[in-house]
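DATA SHEET
Item: assembly model
Revision: 1
Owner: S.N.
Input lines:
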Amino acid sequence: MKANSKVLPKSDLRKTFDTYYDALVQYANRFLVSKDECEDLIQDIFVDLWEKENTFPDEPSLRAYLYKAARNKCYNVIKHNKVKNKYAASTIQELEDDNLFLKQILEEEIVRQLHKAIDVLPERKKEIIKLSLKGIKNNEIAETLGIKLQTVKTLKSQSYKILRDQFKDLSTIIYFLLA
Amino acid sequence: MNDIFHISKLVIKKKLKVLTDAEKSQLKQFKRNYPFSKGINFEYITQRISEHIALDKQKAWEAVVIKAQQGQNTPVIPIYRKPWFKYTAAASVVFVLALTVFLNKDNNQQQFTEPIIVNNQIEKGTDKATLTLENGEQVTLTKGDTYQTQDATSNGEEIIYDSSSTSSELVYNHLTIPRGGQFHLILSDGTQVWLNSESQLKYPVAFNKGETRQVELVYGEAYFDVSPSTNHNGADFKVYHKDQEVQVLGTEFNIKAYKDEVNVYTTLVEGKVAVSYLDQSQNLNPGQQAALYTVQNKLEISNVNAIREIAWINGEFMLEHKTLTEIMQVLSRWYDMDVIFETEKLRDVRFVGVLGKDQSIIEILETIKNFGVITNYEINNKTITLK
């Protein structure tokens, strides 16, 4: 069947990887400047998962493990980095702060889920919804994008509906494949 | 950390103004416990979303696979003890290894018993169909085999009718999809049809120019991407199923009319269609579904998530608040199996999930088991028993 070719091979590890890879790299990027280095670190977390027989009772524990592992990896890199720069000390301090860690994860999770939700929208709606989320008023959006006020209103309300539909029933949902 | 994940959802829902009253008070409580969650700045969040550079995930994943293979000195032995492992095709071993990491709980906390599997003959479905020609001759189409008639060619995964053939008299073919099958069909007018397991479509080899194009979904499920009437001298397209008629002008929609289900569901993805049944007629807008309750003779419209309804054409089962009975009904068509509920109350357990049609039945049952929906299962030949 033709449509089948769009389907990726399924495995939970791969799904998990696809779901969280971006967010984890973004998180690491808060502390490490090089994006390549961040990608490397995060990939290592998945290599560990592949090799070890780690077990997780449910999806949130797996997700928590991923963020904690990312934090540890960043911490170790900075701590053991021979070349200390002037930022190292404050970065270490930041990484050691548990409350700050939770706050950063909260932000990453909001970004991750909103990004995923917005990503299904067509380009124009994406632009509008992002400006609107920033708190920019309709008339300013119209001006910024050079489109009619009425168009902004229509597209905006359609976009919000699509976003709302994605989050409406979430609390009662059990996700099978750690999606 | 669980709280944090929960808060993240609540914060988004608050921003989108879809918080329920219960959630409102939940969020209030959370904010007391985690004061930092009060200060979520959406300007910053949106900034980060915009900065979200799409990383090359495919490449990154390949890097993971390579690193994992290089470092794999010791095979993960315990997995081989799993009784179901030996039933898995060698080709998918790599993925099973990865999968097992998550699916198998620590043996110490394993509260479930091992499944009993005897002579498992349940296989996932493939592309296959039986083509019945106008003279009654039957041809089996399976993946890998090519087939050609005067009007059509097939590579065993799809069949394409020649757009140039014309005839003054309509000649009909039937395409029958067995349990465990699926097939893609392109009619002579360019209309595409995806047919699900246990389905049959009757259609003419060629349509008469300018006349209404008519096909019949004899039973089962089909997704239509209809070639617009403007390309066919305004000829509209009609799909019949028993007394229901769907009239279209160029659009995408799904019809579900299984033999073992009483109701008929027509879901519009794009465009416009009119669904008629006896003296009733309803227009559908995209995202709407017409449910035909054949017992009550009622045609009702509701809003649905159309993408979920048609996930099957992309190789997924998206199960939205379906009961285990309904889920097993869907699965048994694709895996061509029978299901026994040893525990009756399991029948009405509802849940949501995404399952891949390329998974083995054991992978799927293990997933359901690991979520505590069932405590165990048995497989005997082509029958599964849920406990």
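QC remark: Residues 59 and 175 of chain A are 8 Å apart (CA to CA).
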